[in-house]
Amino acid sequence: MKKHDELLKSFYDVFAFPDDPRSEAGLKRYEKAVRRFQVLVEHEWFKALIQNKSQINILEICSGMGIGGVALAKVLSKKNIDINLTLTDLRENALKIAKEWGYKELKKDIRVIKVDAREMYILEMKVDIILMYGLSAPHFNPWDMVRLLASASETLLNDGLMIMEESDRIYRIFYQRGYKEVLIERVNEERMVISTHAGYDMLKGTFNRAVIDLVRKSKPVILETYYWGLAELMALTWIFFKDIDFVNVPEGNIAQGFIMARKPRRKISPDILSKTPKILGDIAEKEQ
Questions:
Q1: What is the pTM (predicted TM-score) of this model?
Q2: Alpha-carbon torsion 129, 134, 140, 142, what sign?
């Protein structure tokens, strides 16, 4: 069985998600992110956070090649704020590109660290903003998300913000189009990427989807996916933060936007959740 970082790299190599800012599609995503953050930073919580601050520390988790973190840093730097940006991901190749491209875009060094988002607290950082941009929540089942949120709560400063760009997949997938056994994901002159159902795990709540590029004749890559709705994701986040808001920004849709969380409770520490519960331990033993 592949390690999770190798699995993610294989998945994104096949799925061809436009996360490379050096490409035409990736650049368009970056420019869109800048426009969206220009709206988001006018939120009252953002204004309160940056008021009277000359420096802001941003930690982006699941950063990929840094489109979200660099875009937010770009917008905040226009407000004469010095930005320290740290990008984290499990894909070393993506972080390498992020560091080089981000330096060209921001004209300053960016720190990159390979770390699991569930374990960001081990970095022993204290930051003003934790960002998860790019609809990354499906990579985390509810058991994982609890650990991620506890880790985020531990890492944020008292007046810090956690920001997640997310979509309501219950509405968009199960209501608007219905769950499909097979989907055509991306088609152009060079690629035809499809995904197909490959199983369901009731204990984790995850669907397995296999992706394959028919043009390049790639081997299928199977990835666990959890289809979060906005309500349950915000409710779970509320356990770890005192206040939650949702902002639907331009160029999105009614089921997509930014979950914002502030005032970390720190009642449940990541260390408390470090021991795997019996049910997940039993699953891990069977998979070995």
A1: 0.94
A2: positive
